[in-house]
Task: inverse folding
């Protein structure tokens, strides 16, 4: 009897202990489920807060430039990351129980100006990759080839111009001393034009030129910038991505021909912005003059190279040189005169080319007999070029194409920072944008949230615009 009672007692103790263990596991399971539910709710609230804060992107940057950035100053001029933290806290509180958000912190902001503009470059490249066709990319790749060839011919023309003009002057002086006979100077008018302003030669209506001036000392390329976490590394600078970036620049920044030939109304900041990306001057006129000088040099080189290959035109210059010099015992004088005539002819044709480009017309990059326009006599007289204003080469390049060539010859860092100058300048002239600073704009950052609901839960996440 006592043995049975003892056994029943053993069973009772065992069941009691088993029940205690089971209750412990049930409690642990329930607590784990509760913690998982709280963590899930917190993660969901974090995602909603992320979408909410990113929805406050800078509207004008998106509308004008297709860029997604959050202005950390929220239009106030001075960066206020604490306000950003409060915004995130507010969004979290809207999706959690009151008092559950114990703290929010943000850091490692990826700024548009990081890497000397590389961060912005990467997003601009991503934007163009979504919309640029293969045919356009092939055309833009040709700009680099054109630029390489133009640079070589440009240098050849400059060297030949300096060498041949000096040679002719020395031979003419020698003739005066030895033969006491002067030699006509058929290129005096051309040389006079070379010393003047190129804009006086190529602008159809000078009164329509923009007189705008910008204070570059306050622009991103000149001031000390806020430092961020660096570029995101998704479209790192390289030859391939440079083509997309060039496409972005040509699409989003206006040029002089849009105003001079197409009648576009004056816009915000400098009007001739592509010219600014190339020249970096503080006035529209200075930028246009610098670019026109570069275009003139390109066309001089290309036109001179063509003239040397055209035997008929070389013979024409040789015949005129012999007639101008006449009988002489000075060796090389006729040849020097011929070369100077060829150079002057190339210059005059080049002036006409640039004038046509600014008038919105197409000009052949590689000239031939059918696309050559000025006669030798017309070139030496440098008469009115307005008679050619409506002519163009149907298969030629437009002014923006030539700017594309010049942009391929411009350093990447200059293009990135000067385009950021233009972006900041334009946004500052929008309504409410007076205190806008591009280095206060971020497209990605880290944030940490501490939430409490019976126990403390810390969550970290990286948030940013997807492009």
Result:
């Amino acid at each position: 009897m006592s043995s049975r009672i003892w056994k029943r007692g053993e069973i009772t103790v065992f069941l009691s202990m088993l029940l205690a263990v089971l209750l412990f596991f049930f409690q642990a399971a329930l607590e784990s489920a509760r913690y998982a539910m709280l963590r899930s709710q917190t993660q969901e609230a974090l995602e909603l807060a992320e979408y909410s804060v990113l929805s406050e992107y800078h509207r004008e940057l998106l509308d004008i430039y297709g860029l997604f950035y959050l202005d950390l100053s929220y239009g106030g001029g001075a960066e206020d990351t604490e306000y950003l933290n409060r915004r995130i806290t507010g969004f979290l509180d809207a999706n959690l129980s009151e008092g559950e958000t114990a703290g929010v912190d943000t850091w490692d902001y990826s700024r548009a100006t990081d890497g000397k503009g590389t961060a912005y470059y990467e997003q601009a490249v991503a934007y163009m990759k979504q919309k640029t066709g293969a045919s356009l990319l092939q055309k833009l790749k040709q700009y680099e080839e054109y630029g390489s060839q133009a640079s070589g011919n440009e240098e050849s023309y400059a060297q030949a111009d300096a060498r041949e003009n000096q040679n002719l002057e020395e031979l003419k002086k020698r003739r005066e001393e030895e033969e006491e006979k002067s030699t006509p100077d058929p290129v005096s008018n051309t040389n006079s034009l070379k010393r003047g302003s190129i804009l006086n030669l190529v602008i159809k209506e000078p009164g329509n030129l923009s007189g705008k001036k910008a204070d570059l000392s306050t622009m991103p390329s000149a001031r000390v910038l806020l430092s961020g976490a660096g570029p995101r590394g998704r479209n790192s600078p390289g030859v391939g991505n440079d083509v997309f970036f060039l496409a972005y620049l040509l699409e989003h920044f206006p040029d002089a021909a849009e105003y001079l030939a197409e009648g576009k109304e004056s816009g915000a900041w400098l009007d001739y912005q592509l010219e600014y990306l190339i020249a970096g001057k503080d006035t529209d006129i200075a930028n246009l003059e610098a670019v026109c000088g570069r275009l003139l040099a390109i066309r001089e080189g290309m036109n001179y190279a063509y003239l040397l290959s055209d035997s008929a035109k070389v013979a024409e210059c040789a015949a005129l040189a012999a007639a101008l010099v006449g009988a002489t015992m000075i060796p090389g004088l006729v040849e020097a005169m011929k070369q100077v005539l060829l150079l002057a002819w190339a210059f005059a044709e080049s002036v006409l080319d640039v004038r046509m480009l600014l008038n919105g017309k197409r000009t052949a990059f590689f000239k031939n007999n059918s696309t050559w326009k000025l006669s030798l006599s017309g070139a030496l007289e440098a008469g009115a070029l307005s008679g050619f204003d409506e002519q163009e080469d149907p298969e030629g390049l437009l002014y923006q194409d030539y700017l594309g060539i010049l942009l391929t010859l411009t350093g990447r860092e200059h293009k990135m920072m000067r385009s950021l100058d233009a972006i900041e300048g334009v946004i500052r002239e929008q309504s409410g944008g007076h205190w806008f600073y591009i280095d206060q704009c971020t497209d990605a950052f880290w944030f940490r949230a501490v939430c409490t609901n019976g126990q403390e839960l810390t969550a970290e996440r990286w948030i940013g615009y997807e492009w």
Q: What stands out?
A: The beta strands are 70-71, 101-111, 441-452, 456-464. The two ends are 83 Å apart (CA to CA). The longest helix spans residues 2-54. Residues 278 and 411 are 9 Å apart (CA to CA).
